[in-house]
Amino acid sequence: MIGGLFIYNHKGEVLISRVYRDDIGRNAVDAFRVNVIHARQQVRSPVTNIARTSFFHVKRSNIWLAAVTKQNVNAAMVFEFLYKMCDVMTAYFGKISEENIKNNFVLIYELLDEILDFGYPQNSETGALKTFITQQGIKGQHQTKEEQSQITSQVTGQIGWRREGIKYRRNELFLDVLESVNLLMSPQGQVLSAHVSGRVVMKSYLSGMPECKFGMNDKIVIDKQGKAGTTDDPGKSGKQSIAIDDCTFHQCVRLSKFDSERSISFIPPDGEYELMRYRTTKDIILPFRVIPLVREVGRTKLEVKVVIKSNFKPSLLAQKIEVRIPTPLNTSGVQVICMKGKAKYKASENAIVWKIKRMAGMKESQISAEIELLPTNDKKKWARPPISMNFEVPFAPSGLKVRYLKVFESKLNYSDHDVIKWVRYIGRSGIYETRC
Amino acid sequence: MPAVSKGDGMRGLAVFISDIRNCKSKEAEIKRINKELANIRSKFKGDKALDGYSKKKYVCKLLFIFLLGHDIDFGHMEAVNLLSSNKYTEKQIGYLFISVLVNSNSELIRLINNAIKNDLSSRNPTFMCLALHCIANVGSREMAEAFAGEIPRILVAGDTMDSVKQSAALCLLRLYKTSPDLVLMGEWTSRVVHLLNDQHMGVVTAAISLITCLSQKNPDEFKTCVSLAVSRLSRIVSSASTDLQDYTYYFVPAPWLSCKLLRLLQCYPPPEDGAVKGRLVECLETILNKAQEPPKSKKVQHSNAKNAILFEAISLIIHYDSEPNLLVRACNQLGQFLQHRETNLRYLALESMCTLASSEFSHEAVKTHIETVINALKTERDVSVRQRAADLLYAMCDRSNAKQIVAEMLSYLETADYSIREEMVLKVAILAEKYAVDYSWYVDTILNLIRIAGDYVSEEVWYRVIQIVINRDDVQGYAAKTVFEALQAPACHENMVKVGGYILGEFGNLIAGDPRSSPLVQFNLLHSKFHLCSVPTRALLLSAYIKFINLFPETKSTIQEVLRSDSQIRNSDVELQQRAVEYLKLSSIASTDVLATVLEEMPPFPERESSILAKLKKKKGPGAVSVNELEEGKREGGELNGGGERGDSSAIAASNASTPSPSADLLGIRTGPPVAAAAASSAGSLLVDVFSEAGINDDGFLRDLEPPTESSESLLAEGPGDSDSAPPSAVSEDPAPLPESNELLNKFVCKNNGVLFENQLLQIGIKSEYRQNLGRMYLFYGNKTSVQFVNFTTTVTCPGELQSQLNVQTKLVEPLIEGGAQVQQVINIECLSEFTDAPLLNIKFRYGGALQNLTLKLPVTINKFFQPTEMASHDFFQRWKQLSLPQQEAQKIFKSNNAMDPEVLKAKLLGLGMALLENVDPNPENFVCAGVIQTKAQQVGSLLRLEPNTQAQMYRLTLRSSKDTVSKRLCELLAEQF
Q1: A97 and A108 in contact (C-beta within 8 Å)?
Q2: Contact state of A374 with B41 under an 8 Å Cβ cutoff
Q3: CB A286 within 8 A of CB A181
Q4: Chain A positions in Cβ-Cβ contact with residue B26 (cut-off 8 Å)
Q5: What's the pLDDT at B669?
Q6: Which residues of chain A have a CB within 8 Å of the CB of B41?
Q7: What ipTM was estimated for this complex?
Q8: pLDDT-based confidence at B611, cuts 50/70/90?
Q9: Residue B959's CB: how many other CB atoms inside 10 A?
Q10: Mean pLDDT in chain A?
Q11: Using the beta-carbon criterion (under 8 Å), do B73 and A350 form an inter-chain contact?
Q12: What's the mean pLDDT in B829-851?
């Protein structure tokens, strides 16, 4: 179990230090600083073992969060907790920065007391936490005894993530399908590896204790239905369904039902939360194709031409497109010509960065650059790192479709039809690289 | 960084550095550096030429980035350009960059050397100094090759500035240290020595470092420096503190120079010239006098400088060891320091006194400080000082104060630091032995020692006690009594049990008269410790039990009961089980007479040097215990203890096939043959055979047992230490390689596998493979006898300069080779540069108790590192002509040893490793070969031509290669082959 938790700034000064167990001493704080933050070589492993003590760290901008333990804990659990901790802090005071942490000392200690008990993670649901840990002074004065007992029963009850008696004038829910595409492609256009990791995020403003059911074009479900009802065209359903490699759900989803019927049913928390996470590797729609052309002209010159092609419906618009073309380490000058957008040589990053604001589907654009090199006496050849890309497209590259989201509330008198539902798809680039 | 003065400051650099320092994170720093690097690259690439100032600025930035830990792979050219600038600051930055970043980059080195040469020949002293500093800072072999000839000239030239001379001397010193073979002083020697007379003190200080280093290598050439150094020293010592102005440091005139002069004098024996000697003695006296004067300043620097000279003078006095008066004065001076407040001073005083104590003149004087030293040992807070105090006590000990010192050391041992305990134990043991007048005192001391610090008492110490007790009749009874009493303690150390077991087993009868220590009581006492002991000790105890049966027949049944118990007779340890079985049989079958003969009292040990002393020597390294002390120890030990020595290595009974355990054995029924190998199998297994047949044929047993009794006496009289702990005292010199080893070497010039060596005992096979400059050799040691070899060790040494030419690594080999077995050893060889000698393989092992020691040459010859090169006819002759310098060629005309069969010749030449080139020589009879020798340092191309003359049965062999040594060596090797 977690023995202690420390938060450092970029200089290695301790901002927050909370020790849960006796086996973690003050010197652990220094050990992490000396061996990881100020290490001579950059420490790349998120887990460091120093003198039989394990340090698990994550970094958010310039802030280091480190969980410390002397026991053999489940590392995945510790990291899950650290991410949750980041989420909670973001939900309370926005961006995690030194400034914000310093301004919220008391709050953070209060949170740490609540979400970790003797090193065991507790309820870290933001919605539930916000009911009794607030930033606006002490709520107890305004709270009645009833409200307090309600909180207790909710937090300790079966449905810890939702309190009773919520009422909205308009029952509304928003569903976002957020995906990130990862790709590594050879110069010839062969896909070396590709996968999509996606999240379904839901924002619900529903009254009472509604029971929801979520349906999507999961291949297993579609096939089962296809078999049951012979009326469906099997060829068509096969095309539109997707194979999900693995998925995880929010704690509100009834897993037993998912296991037996593969149906996703749940009582949603109030407000924003992540319903599920999934990953697919088959039949991915790659929104962009990058075609690189690198020619070395003698020892002192390099010609680079990169063509990007958008590969989706012409009616859709991709946004925030950025192509990053690495340059050799001995670059002494760069001339760039591009048809669309803006391109610039960024010396500090050793790359040419080409930005395009918007681009419709089935289009093509091109950039060409002349790189002058300084002859060096080093025999090392340039390693030619891959060209990477960033973008945002308004569809799901995995092909996932939301088929339905039904809401049942038996006690209150509103039906599925009265709920206003919004669905949005956003596909972003993860690590989207093409070798050159 | 250069001084940032107003007109000269590099603003860009200052801004860049402050940017870097203000970076919030590592990433930000890397970004800033990348940006700067791109900027510098574009500036260097730019079309318009940069002026000196900006070049300097950018090179400076690169240097700063490099020092931050980033790789720099450009800008070297610009730095070299800066060298030819006329501005001091630009030149300086150029040199700075070169000395920090230069690697032996072929094209640039030439340019750099050129620039340095220009500066050296310029008349500008600052430029010359910069160039000299650069040479010294780089200090590579290339630099030495280029400038080793020039610098001595600058050093002794009459018109060189003083500051340049200083730099030149130190630069030369540096080059001499890196590559002594390139710095040839020959003609400059006398002029360098006369630099000691230079007006300028700085020059003298620099030159004296050089001279000290040079004179350590060839003392004779620099002998003249002694008188000059003495006169210089006397001038400094006698000068008033104000005379030397710049070179007076806190009222002490030229302390560094004085120390260096005194150190230089320590390289030589006392001057023979009376006048010089007188002057020197006067100087030393003055220094000692000055130490008595009240300090001129309270500053610590003043006393430090003064004491530095004093200590250096004292070590010179000790080094000369011929002036009783001075030695005593030095000792008294040090005595004052013993109680000084400063810890460092106390440490130094104790250390110097240690060496003083070994001088016959000052030994008595040192002894007067005994109380202080003992006090230091007890109360000193610093552990290193306590250690010195212990050393000094050891050094000053003689017969008069031995009892006091040993008692003090013993009492200190209880509280001593763990790190020095073992050493202390050894010292106490040696002192107790060396100065023992009364043996009961000796036995008491050692038993006390084991009681107090048993864990630190090494085997040697208790072996020694037993040796002495056995050799001295008068202490045996006392020893038995004391041991018996010591064993009564509820918890006693295992070493105590060992001593107890041995002594009671031998001399238990001497105290058996007392009812309190009756035989059965003795036995029960020993056996109560049995189960707490390790296997070797248990084995020893079992031997003690069988001796008890001999000494006290009344204990026989009890002991037999013990031996018969399952925990003994079915013990999982082979050694214990065997002893139990054998002793049980021996006690039940053999008659009392036989038993008495077999288990007769140990004969006295032959004399030998104390093994403890050797152990201490090994522990402290050769320098720590001076040689004469060792000899003294040996002498006294001999006189006093009347042969308290362990069996000589060859006399110590050997192991035999039936008892292969290496554990310490006092009475193991070992019937190992003394030396004669042939008799081994018949005589060796006698007793064992006897036991196996005993049950069937009693008569046979007795009959068979008779003959070996003579030998068994000596066999059983095995030293308590057993032969396995190969006594380091027998540090025998490795014998010279076998006479035939050169022939053996020649056998392997053209082949890689075969039998390297064979005699009646041992066969050594060899398999080797080579790739480029690396080789791997498998040695197979085959034991041709049926008896095992123990302590089998092999060492590979590279004699002389071979050490720097070949890198040989050996894997350890099993120390035990069973009869008829074979073990393998892997040797990795790396050829660093060309070589002529072969590495020596030294093999040591014990066979039947006799130490076998042989040295062979490993068949590693230069041609093993050949890489064959194919080339066409005209290529060959073109290269042949290129290597036409007389020293590059080696030729030999010799008579053929074998039939001149061209096929055999071909096979041999191919085995040599070169490529045999067909259709190259116009005469088809002739053979030509080409190959490249791969060493780590370089590649040496070699060409060979062999012209046989069938009529005259003669060959003419011609070798040409780019290195003369290689040609010569190859020619020598090959001439033996045909």
Answers
A1: no
A2: yes
A3: yes
A4: 42
A5: 35
A6: 330-332, 374
A7: 0.74
A8: low
A9: 25
A10: 88
A11: no
A12: 80
